[in-house]
Every structure is written in structure tokens, then in C-alpha cells.
Amino acid sequence: MRLLGFLDPMKLLISAAFGVSAMLLAFVVYQLLRAEQRGGTDTPRDPSQRRSERRRRAIEKSPVYALFLAFIRIPAGFIAGMEMERLRRYVRTPYRRAGYPGGMDDDEVLALAFVMALAAGGVIGFLLLAFFGPAWAIFGLLAMPAGFMAVVALLQNRGDTRQQQILIAMPYVLDLLVLVLRSGTSLNLALARVVSDYEEHPVGEELGQTLSEIEMGAPRAQAMRRMAERLGHPDMAALADSIVQSEELGWPLADTLARQAERMASERVLNAQAKAGAAGVWVMLPSTLVLLGAILLLFGPILVRVMRGGYNLK
Questions:
Q1: Of the chain's two ends, which shows fewer C-beta atoms within 10 Å, N or C?
Q2: pLDDT tens digits for 269-294?
Q3: 249-283: b (≥16 Cβ within 10 Å) or e
Q4: How far apart are CA 180 and CA 169, in angstroms?
Q5: What is the reported pTM?
């Protein structure tokens, strides 16, 4: 009787429902992971070789990321059938500058932004419901744009960091290209050497993409200009234009790259000096606050005593 009382029918029903739901969830996850490994065609893929390579490496490195891709493909499949080209371009630009982290396609990045928007709205709505009541929960919808923009801002921040890493390494890369070119090799072999030396660096990834485009038949000038467009920095655009102009006018490419390396190195020094000068102005603010605090500690008690009439100054 005790056993029958313990095994209440309602508890057995709840346990069975929980077990069935857990089994269904495991089966769906298994099917999604198999579809991801097969590389199904229901989600549009980006033709960039670098994006697909990053996707493959991320899946091999982290099973959790493979599970994340399996789930994010569900909303991405719905987004793929919608006319959202403006939003796709909006998230594609910072995602391209960030170097395609994770190798997701445009619909998956857009789906991630929408999921974050829903999550932000749900969390803020729950907090408003818990602290202020049901009438305030609807204002959680105002946090949905913030969740969407948080994904874009994160990609933009990562793209700026990556661009800065490329600009710092570019003078050394150009010096290496000049040394290899002056030894009598072609530009393709020189780029291959740089890509091999900077394999794990963003500059190696960008030059590797440019080299693969050249080897697949794209004109060298077009490949260089595409790299400048991907990075979106005036220095890279000037570098691409100088290489194109050197080829059109027949100037020695090694001399052109040497001049560009000197120019970029000197600009980096000037930028560092400008930032150091601006930092000196900002340092004055905390130092002024520290000095004001020291004055208050020294003379504050005396001023308070005088204002209260504690000292007879007559």
C-alpha cells in the first residue's frame, strides 16, 4: 500500500511525458546534426571558400557549435524564403569585416540576430513582470531592437579589431613581399609565402583569399580591389590602387611595395603620436580629481570647523 501511495498515477503520467519529450528532443537533435554533417541544400550557402572552411573548422573544433548550427538553421530556413535583402546586406557587411567567424551564411547570421532580439525582449519582459507587474511586461518589446543591434555591434567591434591587426602587420608583410620579389620570384609565389607564414593571422586569411581568386582566374587588379573592399580601409584601397597602377605602367612591383611599406609604417608612427597626445589631455581629468580630493582631505575639516564657528578668528 505504501508503494502504491508513493507511485501516484499523476506522478507516473508526468514522468512518462517527461521521458517521451526527452527522447523526442534527442531524436530531433540527432537528425539535425546528421543534416548538418551532410551539408544539406535547404539553407543557402555563401560561395566564399574561406567561409565554408571556417564553418568546417568550427564544427570539427566544437560539437557544441555544431549543435548550435543545427538549431539556428530552423529559423534560418524560414528567413531564407522571406524578402529581407536589406537586412541581409546590413548584417553581411560587418560579418564580412569580422572575417566570417563561425562560417555562418547570411540567413543564419540574420536568424541569430532575431533570436537575440526575442531573447532580449523575453528577459526584459520577465524582469518587468517580476518587479512591476503584468502591466509593464509589454514594454519588454522595446528591448527587441537592442538585442538585434547587439549582434551587429559585436560584429562591428570584432571587425574593427581585426582590421587593426591587419594594419599593424601590413608593413612587415610588405617588407617580406619585397624581399621575396627581389629574389626573382613571381607575385603569386610571394603571396603564397606570406600566407604560409601568417596562416593563423587575419592578414594571411585575406591574402589567402586574394591568392585563391587569382589562381582561379580572376584578374590580379580585381582580386586586390576586392580585398580592399572587404577590409574597407583607405590604406588598403591605396595599396590596391598602387599595385594596379604599377602593373599598368610597368613599374617594378617591389619598389612600389617598398614605398607603400614605408608610408604605412610612418603613418602608424604618426597615429601613435596623435593618440599619445590625446591621452595626455584625458589623463588631466583624473589627476585633477585626485588633486581636488587631496585638497578636500587636507583643508575640509578646517573649513567645516570655521563655518560652524569652532575657531575664534577675532
A1: C
A2: 777 777 777 777 777 778 788 888 88
A3: eeeebbebbbebbebbeeeeeeeeeeeeeeeeeee
A4: 17
A5: 0.67
